[in-house]
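Task: complex structure prediction.
Instruction: return structure tokens for all chains below.
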Amino acid sequence: MSEIPSLDSSKPYYQCVRCGNCCRWPGDVNVTPEEVSTIAAFLGRDEAEFISSCTRLNANRTGLSIIDKPNGECLFLEGVNTCQIQSVKPIQCAGFPNVWNFPGWREKCEAVEVAAS
Ligand code: SF4
Ligand code: SF4
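Output:
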């Protein structure tokens, strides 16, 4: 998994409770070329085959995204909240909501706020 940028310790930390909601939002799950290699190797798949069957061009056409299922959830979401590539998931996934988030994220994410140390 890619390294997550260090967090600002003066701000609250949000502990993920694995509700799986962020894996169900339609939209890009961006993957870097390095992440593509890592995930393909983790799954034991040929990289070119993985790219053609599991990724698509992202919305702003700057890179690749993991494809969505027809219902909008991520291809690698299994059941309610299991990520099939948890140990090698993209940094976009690992960084939410502490490294990045968006207006209104709190209404959808069930992470628990932990006081700053
Ligand atoms: S890769 Fe895993 S953590 Fe990221 S959106 Fe897909 S299922 Fe969720
Ligand atoms: S929406 Fe928030 S609490 Fe739920 S899995 Fe994603 S980061 Fe974790």
